[in-house]
Design goal:
Blueprint: H1 3-12, E1 13-27, E2 36-46, E3 52-68, E4 79-80, E5 85-89, E6 92-96, H2 110-114, E7 119-130
Antiparallel strand pairs: 1-2, 1-4, 2-3, 3-7, 5-6, 6-7
């Protein structure tokens, strides 16, 4: 995911009160596995279309580490209050879906991104796309 792709995602969608609908983890095993892949399906609102809800996929490739913490009492799992924060450290992209804890500050390292986050992923690369409705 390039900086332009991230900018397009953040400009097109309003993430306040959006919801992570699905987290799909995929990992191959064997002699030459490709590594872990993650697909995040998030219901977000389209800014230029009267805030119509649309499911968006974030596909992360060669995921090195992640944290999904659903243990916080009183906070609904998967509800996003702010847009995801995308950072890059040590050649890897971090996608923090709970970035509101940083406010207007930026983390200083990949480790800082993971400290205290409840929903965060680190991958070599990623893409985003609109999840097309099923046609029956």
């Amino acid at each position: 995911m390039t900086d332009d792709g991230i900018a397009a995602l953040l400009a097109r969608y309003e993430f306040g009160d959006s919801c992570v609908r699905r987290v799909i983890l995929d990992q191959e095993f064997g002699w030459k596995p490709r590594g872990r892949a993650v697909r995040l399906v998030i219901d977000v609102q389209v800014v230029d279309e009267a805030l119509r809800w649309e499911p968006v996929c974030l596909d992360l490739v060669d995921v090195k580490r992640f944290r999904i913490d659903e243990s916080q009492a009183g906070s609904p799992a998967g509800v996003l209050y702010d847009p995801p924060q995308f950072t890059r450290f040590d050649g890897l992209m971090q996608v923090d879906l709970c970035a509101e804890r940083f406010g207007s500050l930026r983390p200083g390292s990949g480790q800082e991104v993971f400290e205290g986050s409840e929903l965060v992923f680190e991958a070599v690369e990623g893409t985003w796309s609109v999840l097309e409705p099923w046609s029956v």
